[in-house]
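I hope you will forgive my troubling you with a question about protein structure. Could you please explain, in whatever detail you think fit, how the structure tokens follow from the sequence? Thank you for your consideration; the sequence and its tokens are set out here.
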Amino acid sequence: TPNLSVLFAARAAGLLPLGFVGSIGEFSDTHKLREAAAHARRLGFAGALAIHPTQVSIFNEAFSPSAQELEWAHRVIVAENDAATRGLSAFSLNGRMVDPPVVRRAHEILALASDN
């Protein structure tokens, strides 16, 4: 779909992709909008543009990092710093491999939180 093309192009260019798959015309259907925003975030969108004030809080909630995500990102960065002192670019954290793309994601999450 065109929206996914925007997502991929923005990510490839190092930009934050905004939008989601579907329509936001039914802004009064908050349940449907929450589902669409959550789906967009799972796909990799970083936010969406609101066409009505009632959408703002829904988008803020859907696209903001959760407390659990922030905690994970902090743990990754601490472990990354420790690994770097040992000359490692990939390491294990809680039994999972962490490599540069995962570290970038942790930095993105922390950056999003600091922007809010």
